Amino acid sequence: MNLRLACVALIGLSMCVAASAQGRPHVHGAATLGIVIETGRVTVQLDTPLDGLLGFERAPRTDAEKRRVEAAVSTLRGADALFRFTPAAGCTSASVELSSAALGLGHPDPSEARAEHADLDGTFVFRCADTARLTEVDVGLFNAFAGMNRLQVEVATARGQFKRELTRPAQRVSLVR
User: Fold this and answer.
1) What does the pLDDT read at residue 116?
2) Exposure pattern of 128-162 as b/e (b: 16+ CB <10 Å)?
3) CA geometry: angle at 11 spanning 139 and 165, to 5°?
4) Burial letters 75-101, b for 16+ CB under 10 A, else e
5) Which of 53, 44, 58, 51 minimizes the C-alpha distance to 139?
6) Using CA atoms, how far apart are residues 12 and 15, in angstroms rounded to an integer?
7) Which residue has the higher pLDDT, 1 or 80?
């Protein structure tokens, strides 16, 4: 997939993820995961209600809640542990961006500050030695966050786009159509 096509796919997928998040009911324990695969790179986008990560959907109020936020953010920043790709592809984390108005992270949409149910958006970029050998990803979100139970996964590759659903306790998502 050339860079321009990959950018269009990534923009389209991120718009679809955002639109589906706004168009669907807010469901605790459910999140959307977008995966875009291009030559040498995989981008994973996470859109999740804070409840699935923290057990609450607002800015932390107590010291215990603040510690829970710190632990969740630290876990999310450890992208190599959360997303384990086919070893032959040689993928390693290149960057992590987290955004949440309630948690004061990143550059969230200003309308999120007024939202009844706060969320978190994450973008995880991986550099890969050989994305042609990429066939699956093990997603560690269920193990890391007890409140997360279901992922709607949208995958975009040079060969097309498709959806998968992952429910606890399953972890593996096939990246082959």
Assistant:
1) 65
2) beebeebeebebbbbebbebbbbbbbbbbbeeeee
3) 30
4) bbeebeebbbbbeebbbebeebebbbb
5) 44
6) 5
7) 80
